[in-house]
């Protein structure tokens, strides 16, 4: 891979040969419901806790992604996933019986892009098959980050709704690809690992505002490094800035860099729900938001040719309930992946 | 890099060109006190909380490691660190003002080996300089995982003492190395990402027992993959199995694989404290245990020729207070790095 600025371009792009995005009942009732590879009406997944339900959902997404790529767990060199639960137990318990070498990653809601970036780079280093994924669950997040579900806490309009969902993508080295998989494969042409950006936002009910500066920085840097313009992309997809964060992203890019991405931009957080009807305030959030949307709806549209060149920029708010209670700001990060048919 | 079994051998080994291990007062009073690059008498680090103190300690280790390698933060391609705090805020707040592209990782107490493995592979993919690190803090861990410090909870003999410390290593691509750095550099000859291993241990006061099966598996697999014997190593260094876990490791390796590593084995958790005098029960633990010991004491002994071939196997217990309260077992993992002068 070749470095330009902070962006890495692959001479031999790693390929996504399979993916799956799964989601819960509420997400299934949203605009992308038909595109998910599975919608679980029972979001307990038959488990004893919401935490184990999240693990079960990620486990399901991994199995579906491997099936779609026709890959067995024993052929996977590395699986890298992450989630929002304390000590990343969403991932640890999802992976524990799958017998794949496990790289635990943490990028808050940017995790899907982070694991895709790292997978692509490890393939570039010589690995054959890497698996990237992420998950979140409304019920496990709500009680960990906010209030017990039974409390019914009120939310301001800037708040977002943690998505119950998981996504997983299988990345293979182009050198070893089965010709059968080639025509449906999606190229990872470039990756860009973000730098933490903190403009001092402290409101844990306004993650969009905390993450927008990181997204603006990564997008501006990526366009600068690759000498491209927003018009060169069919889609610039942010993770989960929601309505509030997306508006701030436009303003920041316009003011700081005179870049206008409004025509090309969509946000997984505003796509996954019908904001006018589903009572999710500023939109969806959580690692599972961009993971489930990217690995199902977006991948399907790249594969069928509707989207030819997509810049996927997932964003994360690097806080914890403890750091918020201690009055700390919310550092943001955004990682980018360039995808082409 | 070349794959043999689950082990990756580097044709052109990435080099550790600088490192630093820092620790708290109690660790400074232990047998390795003189080898730490810094011992902080005031483990609050002048911060408002123990969580921020942990971040400040990791920040310090990173700066010292970069200085020892004569590298500026702006020349770092990727920094990857992790810790035990909820949502990895130890790392996020340590890194937030350093302006380096950040890859968040989670491997519980195996994190130092995990970040070293990933750093080496990203260098193998074409990155120039990667920074790997990890931290833990007794006071931030104690109140998050166990009891408020003021409560003075009693511990069984199998319990371990979370190390207040951090370590950081700077890994460079051999192609680009400054000749001045070459003679002090340490080669990363091979890496091995572990697979989660869970034999059903549920006692959160016996992490050694939870992690020993993963360590045994990784060591047996590594020796098998590389067709080597324990005698081929000057040191087989586990992360923080403590007394209990180390004993179980010997038994498991002997029974399952007829491998005897007792002569070559040491454990960071039993090295860092004087177990007879420092009241730490089974020994030290936490990401900062193997990180601070490896990045100071061990690196110094490889550089001065005392140790020529070291297999570093850090171990992690992939649980959270929530998973333990829900009655779940503690999955273990162990990642290995082969280091040579």
UniProtKB/TrEMBL annotation, chains A, B:
Alphabetical list of Pfam families matching this protein: SpoVAD
Q: Which domain of life is it from?
A: Bacteria
What are the GO MF terms of this UniProt record? acyltransferase activity
Listed name of the protein: Stage V sporulation protein AD
Query: From which source organism is this entry?
Result: Eubacterium coprostanoligenes
């Amino acid at each position: 891979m070749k470095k330009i600025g902070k962006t890495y371009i692959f001479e031999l792009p790693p390929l996504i040969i399979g993916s799956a995005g799964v989601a819960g009942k509420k997400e299934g009732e949203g605009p992308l419901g038909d595109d998910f590879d599975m919608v679980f009406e029972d979001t307990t997944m038959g488990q004893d806790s919401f935490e184990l339900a999240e693990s079960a959902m990620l486990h399901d997404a991994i199995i579906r992604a491997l099936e779609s790529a026709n890959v067995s767990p024993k052929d996977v060199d590395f699986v890298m996933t992450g989630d929002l639960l304390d000590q990343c137990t969403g991932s640890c318990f999802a992976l524990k019986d799958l017998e794949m070498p496990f790289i635990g990653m943490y990028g808050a809601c940017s995790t899907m892009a982070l694991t895709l970036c790292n997978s692509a780079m490890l393939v570039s280093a010589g690995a054959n098959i890497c698996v990237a994924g992420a998950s979140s669950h409304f019920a496990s997040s709500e009680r960990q980050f906010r209030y017990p579900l039974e409390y019914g806490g009120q939310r301001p309009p800037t708040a977002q709704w943690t998505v119950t969902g998981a996504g997983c993508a299988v990345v293979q080295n182009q050198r070893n690809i089965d010709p059968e998989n080639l025509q449906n494969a999606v190229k990872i042409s470039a990756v860009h690992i973000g730098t933490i950006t903190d403009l001092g936002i402290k409101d844990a009910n306004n993650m969009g505002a905390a993450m927008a500066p990181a997204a603006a920085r990564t997008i501006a840097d990526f366009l600068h490094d690759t000498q491209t313009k927003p018009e060169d992309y069919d889609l610039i997809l942010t993770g989960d800035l929601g309505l509030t964060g997306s508006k701030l992203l436009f303003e920041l890019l316009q003011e700081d860099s005179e870049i206008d991405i409004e025509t090309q931009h969509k946000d997984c957080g505003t796509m996954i729900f019908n904001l006018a009807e589903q009572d999710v305030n500023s939109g969806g959030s959580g690692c599972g938001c961009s993971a489930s949307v990217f690995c199902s709806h977006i991948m399907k549209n790249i594969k069928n040719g509707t989207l030819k060149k997509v810049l996927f920029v997932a964003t994360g708010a690097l806080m914890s309930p403890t750091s918020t209670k201690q009055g700390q700001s919310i550092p943001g990060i955004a990682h980018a992946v360039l995808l082409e048919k």
